[in-house]
Amino acid sequence: MPEQLTRRQMIKALGLAGAGVSLAAVSGGNPLNAASEAIADTKAQPVPRRYWWVKNVDKITMEVDWKNYKRFSEWKTTRGSLKEYRGNAEDAKYLKLQKDNLLKWELENVPGYTTKDTALKNAVGYGRPPFQFMGPQTVSTPQDRGVPIYEGSPEESSRIITAALRHMGAATVGFVQLEPDSTRKLIYAEEPAPSKKPIFFENVDVGYEDEKKLVVPDKARWIIVFTIQMSTETMKYGPTQLGSLTTALTYTRMWTIVSQLHEFLRGLGYHSYGPSQFNGFSINPALATLAGLGEMSRLNRIITPEYGPMVRAVSIATDLPLAPTKPISFGVMDFCKDCKTCAEICPSGALSMDREPSWEGKGPWNNGGAHKAWYEDSVKCRNYWNTCGTNCGTCFSSCPYAVDDEASMHKIIKGTIASTTMFNSLLVAADRKAFPATTGQPMKNPEDWWKDTNLAEMGIDTRRGGRNI
Q: Regarding beta strands 295-296 and 214-217, do their DSSP bridges make them parallel or antiparallel, or are they unpaired?
């Protein structure tokens, strides 16, 4: 049976029915040879093999000035300070608007906002374990069991952590070594409101927390960062309650895995440190980029080669020595310069339309000045969330990298983007023509989702991710 290019029929739009060979040539010759070389090159790596068009690099594709980079306080984001940024009156207005709209649309049975949509969104957010700085600390340690602690090389340890996290449900896994003058600065200076506890590094054997601070020992020099795959399908029903359950379910899975990872490390005989509040410990997209899980993008979020932007990332620190993974490049930063799809379709106009990333942030919610990014106006984004009643997700679902199949032409196109910028404008135009998106409207009818009883488990496809190369 022929492959169905369910995502944006690029061949037809481009008129490239016979151009596969030409694109393959531009992207580095025979894709099968390139794939073989990539697989051979990664046999010793602690991470799963990648697509042939993903290259390991020495530096991330985003420019960073570590000398001027300062640790950021999480409570300065719009998660913690939105009321201050938009003022008391505006804040009250938007919160009332959200409450009124959700009730009105549920009473009117608006698709995506019906009682069944609301009930499911609320249900999948249930079951998240409590946030604990050092994890639950309930499993027995090797000392408790009367056996030596686990000992292996950093490469071996990275491999077993990756295997364990994959089994727990992580999508991709990477590792970063913390250095005082650079990567350690990606640990928040202060955790979220309301506690706003400062996070310190101290020369102690085991970290701790008290009423005034969280302490990470200097010896906890390794970061484990992993992604959780989100449902590409349900995100297409945003902005609605049905679309919003995409992130609700992902976070439920994520925080469960964080607790399990803490316990796994404890069971090996080591300590770990992570969020004690929602999204509280570290700047995860930056750490994921440094660990080679993806590249930063116009979304100001990570785009991965395996899942596009359809992931959430989370990190914890540990004193188990690990082998750092290298950053990667597959053309995202250059493609985003020409694409702008997410910014053009953003209902709030929150995303940057500038061709080049900037050193300058849009407001105090951005940690600007020391890294170049397409900074977003987070207040505009949050105002729209209140207006539509839920988180939006349009920028994620409209991204050309948010594909949900394994068609060979998609691989050729991504290989081309990774190798040359020559066709970027043409590919963007084809994407728009083949699948025009509508601002502020779901890509699919939410009522149709409820008619499908053959849905993928948790809405995700675990066959994706290059494991069937």
A: unpaired
Do 48 and 307 form a contact (C-beta atoms < 8 A)? Answer: no
**Could you read off the pLDDT of 162-219 as tens digits, one per residue?**
999 999 999 999 999 999 999 999 999 999 988 899 999 999 999 999 999 999 999 9
CA distances from residue 89 to 3, 96, 272, 380 in whole angstroms, order as listed: 54, 11, 42, 16
Q: How many Å apart are CA 454 and CA 449, to the nearest integer? A: 10
Structural domain boundaries in the chain: 42-404+438-459
Q: What are φ and ψ of residue 256, in 5° steps?
A: -65, -45
Sequence-ordered list of residues with C-beta below 8 angstroms from that of 66, at least 6 positions apart, any chain: 181, 182, 185, 370
CB-based contact 315:409 (threshold 8 Å): no
Q: Name 228's bridge partners.
A: 312
Nearest to 53 by CA among 66, 72, 70, 35: 35
Q: Which stretch of DSSP H or E encloses residue 284?
A: helix 284-290
Strands 311-318 and 272-273, sheet pairing: antiparallel
Question: Cα–Cα distances in Å, from 287 out to 111, 186, 353?
Answer: 38, 7, 25
- The pLDDT tens digits for 135-148 are 999 999 999 999 99
- CA dist 461 and 284 (Å) reads 23
User: Can you say how many angstroms the Cα of residue 300 is from the centroid of all Cα atoms in its chain?
Assistant: 10
CA distance linking residue 414 with residue 396, whole number of Å: 17
CA-closest candidate to residue 419, choices 31, 58, 7, 19 = 31
How far apart CA 218 and CA 319 sit, in angstroms, is 9
**Which residues, in sequence order, are CB contacts of 341 under 8 Å at separation 6+?**
398, 399, 400, 428, 431, 432, 437
Residue 196 gets the label, from left (phi > 0), alpha (psi -120 to 50) or beta, of left
- Which has the closest alpha carbon to 306: 60, 50, 121, 74? 50
Give every CB contact of residue 453 below 8 A, 6+ residues apart in sequence.
none
